[in-house]
Specification:
Structural class: mainly alpha
Distance between the termini: 26 Å
Order of helices and strands: HHHHH
Largest sheet: none
Strand content: under 5%
């Protein structure tokens, strides 16, 4: 794993954890709809990013990269929706699952052409969502 990839993973993990802690701390002031939006965006962003990275790493083994990416997106979506309630948990889980599948397919398809470029582009999505 290169240093830039490690830095991207560390930065995105820090951002996701900080957002989950912030939502858990201020859950009384976050509306249900905004909580659902936060859990969906975190689950989807983490699933797409990790799916793309794992698709590049496990090029040719789409099953393994898809399963790992789905599990990561599912866990992030679940944890993000937990302080808000059941609808946010369900939305987070389903969007994390979908993001993991899409990211793994994307990473496997573009792995040989320009893997660093696509990982850098996908890493910008959680930073601005």
């Amino acid at each position: 794993m290169s240093i830039s990839l490690f830095f991207i993973l560390l930065l995105c993990a820090t951002q996701v954890i900080t957002t989950i802690i912030y939502v858990a701390y201020y859950r009384n002031w976050v509306t249900k709809m905004n909580g659902m939006l936060i859990s969906m965006s975190l689950g989807m962003s983490a699933g797409i990013l990790m799916g793309t990275i794992l698709g590049v790493i496990y090029h040719g083994d789409l099953f393994k990269s898809t399963i790992y990416a789905i599990l990561i997106g599912l866990v992030v979506g679940f944890l993000a929706g937990l302080p808000i309630g059941l609808p946010a948990v369900i939305d987070g889980i389903l969007s994390g699952l979908m993001g993991g599948m899409m990211g793994a397919m994307l990473g496997d398809m573009v792995a040989m052409t320009r893997p660093n470029a696509i990982i850098n582009i996908i890493a910008w999505i959680p930073a601005y969502s």
